[in-house]
Amino acid sequence: MSRKELWSGRFRKQLDPAAKRFSSSPEDSSILKFDIAGSIAHANGLRRAGLINDEALKCLVDGLRSIYASYADSSSALLHGEEDIHMAVESRLTEMYPSHGPRLHTGRSRNDQIALDLKMFARDGLLRLAEHLLQLEGVLLKVSRRHVNVPLPGYTHLQRAQPMYLSHHLLAHFWRFMRDIRLAGALFDIINSSPLGAGAIGGTGLPLRPSYTAALLGFEHTFENSLDATTDRDFALNIAYLSALISLHLSSLAEEMVLWNTSEFGFVSLPDSLSTGSSLMPHKKNPDIAELVRGKSGGVIGELVSAMVTVKGLPLGYARDLQTVKSPLFHAVDETCSSLSMMSLLMDGAGFNRKKMLQSASDELTYSVEIVDSLVRNGMPFREAHSSLGKAVSASVEGGKKLEEVVSGLWPGMHFPSSPLEDIEMRSSAGGSSLSSVRRQLDAAADAVKSSRNWLSSCRRRVSKVDRLLGLK
Ligand code: ARG
Predict the structure, then answer these.
(1) Residues lining ligand 1, Cβ inside 6 A
(2) Fewest Cβ atoms nearer than 10 Å: which of 203, 235, 269, 461?
(3) How far apart are CA 68 and CA 467, in angstroms?
(4) What interhelical angle do 54-71 and 32-48 show, nearest 10?
(5) What gap in Å lies between CA 234 and CA 242, rounded to an integer?
(6) Is the full-model pTM beyond 0.70?
């Protein structure tokens, strides 16, 4: 016979064991730390309001910290047979301190409690994502510097378009991830408000002060509306969206690594330690890690959709459906962090084949834009120059002649780029592909990383209050 639920007063029968299994929350093992820190803050709030005495506060805090110390690495054991983490912690605490444990939940509901736990997870998740993003950014910067002036073709429609440097190409990925970090920063500000004190739905009649517990937990704000605070899961959707966006960016980079690693492209050779072989074909070296990063991005997008569809159409006020938003949130963050860290390793270990890239970048047809620009510089209207070059390219392709030859026949004395470098160097506009533009870009990228690092450390300091409450610092 299982133990009575903490809410069982109103009921004549115990919860059906199958219903209990169905409704339990095993995924709560991811939020033990936050649940306990929130309870320690709440116990302090109760003391401040005169609702418990010093002795009770000490016992509650000691008990909660010792539960954390015992179960931090085995929270599933604590959850076993319990409805959720809130019940599991309170039951264990009450076993330890039978006269003080039952006072902990005063003035609090599991509705504000779970919203608080998830906000703390979300805050921590944002910082973990940002940390992994910065690690990948560092690798992309390093590889870009190493190959700052190595040309390869730039593509549109996956057709050779204009040559550029590998650094410029990799930095395009860098800026995507930088926007992700900036989005994480904006979300951190939005998320940084504590729902503790909102009660079940309408606040509390006891003299508790939400701003006091919010400050203890390192939150900047509290809520304006208790009903909104308990129902709000926008923060979970926002983080799932950020994770999905990062995953899209990762997937695009992974796809290029898969493509460039083919014999047909041959631009990159992925490290042995991150490649796998075939069980049948001895010669194979497969880019499985990049493929998995690409594949797992689909799952993360799925988590976003799953969370959105779950909250769609829910009325205000807590409904148990909200319990099912937790797994998508946890998975989205965890999967994205592990893909980010695999991608950092992959990019760090990738070997770039300069010769092969130079060879492909030396396709003279891709210099055609530069010839158009030369004609324009000499006064020809752009449309006329574009159309003339189009005809020249067609004469070259159809007549089996070099474009350079056709161009010098049409416009004697016209300068034709002798190498991809010469073509690339013409585009020295801001953010363009020339070496001087790329060097400016590298400086801006390094500055952006530095300011993101500073932002991350200040957030970490703020959030470390949680560790202090747990007695870890
Ligand atoms: N296990 C629940 C969840 O994860 C906690 C809140 C339960 N509240 C309630 N009124 N049943 O969402």
Answers:
(1) 25, 84, 110-111, 114, 318, 320, 322-323, 326
(2) 461
(3) 11
(4) 180
(5) 12
(6) yes
> Which domains are seen in the chain, by residue range?
16-106 (1.10.275.10), 111-209+216-359+439-469 (1.20.200.10), 363-418 (no CATH)
Q: Is 73 left (phi over 0), alpha (psi -120 to 50) or beta?
A: alpha
Q: At what angle do helices 110-146 and 85-96 cross, to 10 degrees?
A: 120
Contact call for residues 52 and 60 (beta carbons, < 8 A): yes
Q: What is the mean pLDDT of residues 181-201?
A: 97
CA angle 336, 131, 189 (to 5 degrees): 95
CA–centroid distance, 265 to ligand 1, in Å, is 53
Measured distance CA(301)–CA(282) in Å, rounded: 35
Q: Give the Cα separation of 271 and 267 in Å (integer).
A: 13
Active site residue 278: yes
Alpha-carbon gap, residue 346 to 275, rounded angstroms = 9
pLDDT at 337 over 60: yes
pLDDT digits (tens, 9 = 90+) for 285-318: 889 999 999 999 999 999 999 999 999 999 999 9
CA angle in degrees (0–180, nearest 5) for 329-334-340:
125
Determine contact, residues 416/367, Cβ cutoff 8 Å.
Answer: yes
Ligand 1 centroid – CA 323 distance (Å): 6
**Among 95, 78, 97, 81, which Cα is nearest to 36's?**
78
Closest CA to 217 of 122, 129, 109, 100: 122
In order, the DSSP letters of 146-169 are HTTT-EEEEEETTEEEEEEEHHHH
Which atom number of ligand 1 is nearest to the Cα of residue 200?
10
Looking at residue 359, its amino acid is Q
**Whole-number Cα distances in Å, 40 to 37, 174, 404:** 5, 41, 76
Assess contact for 163 and 153: CB atoms under 8 A: yes
Residue 101 Cα to ligand 1 middle (Å)? 20
**Dist. CA 290–CA 297, nearest whole Å:** 11
pLDDT at residue 2 tops 60: no
Residue 221 pairs in a beta bridge with 193
- DSSP letters, 174-211, are HHHHHHHHHHHHHHHHHH-EE-TT-TTTT--SS---HH
Tell me how far apart the terminal alpha carbons of the chain are, to the nearest angstrom. Answer: 41
Query: Which run of H or of E encompasses 268?
Result: strand 268-269
Predicted confidence band at 15 (pLDDT cuts at 50, 70, 90)?
confident
